[in-house]
Write a structure and sequence with these properties.
Number of domains: 2
Largest sheet: none
Low-confidence stretches: none
Number of strands: 0
Strand content: under 5%
Helix content: over 70%
Distance between the termini: 30 Å
Order of helices and strands: HHHH
């Protein structure tokens, strides 16, 4: 437990320093990262939803490294396929969110029934 805590502390400090370096000497015209876009305000819908995809992929993997890779590929293919379906066939990309929701509900139900059976 102590090794993991020290490792997490080290990584947090390391990436904090990296963020500080990018803040002062970033790629945005010689200084600073463009955090709020070129209008310096956050726009509605600025998030692409990758956080939700990562969370669901982690839940789907259930702590397995190979499972994380497989789940990340699954959700990457779903997202990419949803964009292509919208362009080619006119299917709304919201269908991908519905499919992801069904996967989450199915996993939750399966975990519940497995726990009840034991």
């Amino acid at each position: 437990m102590k090794v993991e805590s020290l490792f997490l502390l080290f990584l947090g400090a390391f990436f904090g320093i990296v963020g500080l370096i990018y803040w002062f000497w970033g790629y945005d015209d010689g200084g600073g990262i463009m955090l709020l876009g070129d209008q310096y305000v956050l726009k509605d819908g600025f998030s692409s939803g990758y956080g939700f995809d990562g969370l669901v992929a982690g839940l789907l993997a259930r702590g397995s490294v190979v499972g994380v890779i497989a789940a990340a590929l699954l959700f990457g293919f779903l997202r990419s396929g949803g964009i292509n379906m919208e362009m080619v066939a006119g299917v709304p990309t919201a269908l991908v969110m519905v499919i992801q929701g069904l996967i989450v509900v199915t996993l939750a139900g399966a975990a519940y029934f497995i726990r009840q059976r034991q």
